[in-house]
Write a structure and sequence with these properties.
- It is a single chain.
- Strand 20 (about 400) and strand 21 (about 405) form a beta hairpin.
- The strands form four sheets. Strands 4, 11, 12, 13, 14, 15, 16, 17 and 18 form a nine-stranded mixed beta sheet that branches.
- The protein is an alpha+beta fold.
- The chain has nine helices and 21 strands.
- It is globular and about 65 Å long.
Length: about 425
């Protein structure tokens, strides 16, 4: 049995952030990162948008934006992170947004009761994110970090009392365990907490659509790459991609969720933009699991879409008719050609009415703030669902679940973005270092 001081499960931003922090201290000991895929996964691989402004990406139940001590700590860590990545990996320092741009969009938003949050951002693109991952892994390997890929963690047995991991690949022992499996590790996280008697809530999801359109119809991206708008009814924009932008699908069990990414400016530009508009849903009794609810509405979409996500033109939606394959080849009216081969159809048949109403109201407001986004050719894809539904009862504010066991990143609800995930991993690692 191989022994390690700290084992980290997951090599996304939360896991890498924890490993990074541990390597900064000579007493961190032997560190192992376990990754179930052949390559590092997580948000760093998907467009790699880095937001360095609190509270963007920081869930309030873990990072109180009204607490001055939290504000000071997070801002200090974010500043430290920008300079560390710039020094070691050449990542550009984040640029702010010009006051004239802020004033324009804030004024438009405020008149409608919408909040616009400007922030400091760096966009690396999918290709730039992969380069950063490779540089980070190379750095960590030089600092006494072992990395195992293709590890079937869901087939492993974790004994938190004996502090062992028994798996087909390897039997391991640890002093500290940091779990950072990301949103895709939902089943693993749920089973782990259930088996170890860790109480948690599974009652919250984000559900919505992804829009795809020509950049000229969402011109704000020319001034601000990833705009953050917060609408009434708990609706928000999320994960904007532009330039060399594509809509993709991600498999979760028997269903697909759409997502988006973009390459850096080094790649050929297609002059498209895509972004998600999501509604947050909190469930009470008798719904016991937000995840189960998400699967049920996603299954309906797969049924109506023949096993694929559904796409519909704004023009067809407004006229109350489904989109057809022929409607996506009309270069005169519709212009935007879909980058994902989804099923043309009618999203109103499969989106719950309350979600659809809230999102459509928000889109009409957004079209007033950024005129043109509701062009008839704009494409709506359904479903895009984000699982932030595990909210454990942490033993302390360093995200400890049990003695020597920590849960960080999107999979445990401590983050909703790359930099927040990194800092949550770093926070757990800091507690380990301090002893």
């Amino acid at each position: 049995m191989k022994k390690y001081d700290t084992i980290i499960i997951g090599s996304g931003p939360a896991g890498l952030g924890a490993a990074w922090h541990l390597t900064q201290y000579g007493n961190a000991g032997k560190i192992l990162i376990i990754e179930q895929h052949a390559i590092s996964s997580g948000g760093l691989r998907n467009d790699c948008k880095l937001n360095f402004t609190f509270p963007i990406g920081f869930p309030a139940h873990c990072w109180d934006p009204m607490d001055n001590a939290v504000l000071a700590e997070v801002n200090s860590k974010l500043l430290e992170l920008t300079h560390a990545w710039n020094k070691h990996f050449g990542i550009p320092l984040p640029a702010g947004i010009e006051n004239a741009v802020v004033t324009k969009y804030e004024a438009r938003a405020q008149r409608l009761g919408v909040q616009f949050i400007p922030g400091q951002q760096v966009h690396l693109g999918t290709d730039g994110g992969i380069s950063l991952i490779n540089a980070l892994l190379k750095y960590l390997k030089k600092h006494n970090v072992t990395i195992i890929n293709k590890f079937r963690i869901e087939a492993a047995s974790i004994d938190i009392k004996k502090k062992t991991i028994s798996a087909p690949e390897e039997n391991l022992q640890y002093k500290n365990l940091i779990l950072a499996p990301g949103r895709a590790g939902h089943t693993f996280v749920q089973e782990f907490m259930h088996l170890n008697g860790i109480k948690y809530h599974d009652n919250c999801i984000d559900a919505g659509i992804r829009l795809e359109t020509n950049i000229e119809h969402y011109s704000i991206v020319n001034e601000y790459y990833d705009p953050k708008f917060y609408f009434p009814e708990r609706v928000r924009t999320f994960c904007t991609n532009a330039g060399a932008a594509y809509v993709i699908q991600e498999k979760y069990g028997n269903w697909y969720s759409v997502n988006g990414h973009a390459y850096s400016k080094k790649h050929k530009q297609n002059n498209l933009a895509n972004f998600a508009i999501l509604k947050t849903l909190d469930f009470t009794e008798p719904i016991a699991s937000g995840h189960d609810y998400a699967e049920s509405i996603a299954a309906t979409a797969m049924l109506a879409g023949g096993g694929k996500p559904i796409m519909q033109r704004i023009g067809d939606f407004r006229m109350g008719k489904r989109s057809t394959p022929g409607g996506f080849v009309n270069d005169d009216l519709y212009q935007t050609k879909p980058t994902l081969k989804a099923c043309p159809g009618d999203i109103s048949l499969v989106i719950p009415a309350k979600i659809l109403r809230a999102i459509w109201n928000a889109l009409k407001q957004l079209d007033t703030i950024v005129p043109g986004v509701l062009h008839p050719g704009t494409i709506m894809y359904w479903p895009e669902i984000k699982m932030y539904n595990h909210t454990p009862r942490f033993a302390n504010d360093s995200f400890m679940l049990a003695d020597g066991v920590y849960g960080v990143g999107d999979g445990f609800g401590t983050s909703r973005g790359i930099t927040a995930a990194w800092l949550s991993g770093q926070k757990a690692a800091s507690h380990i270092v301090s002893g």
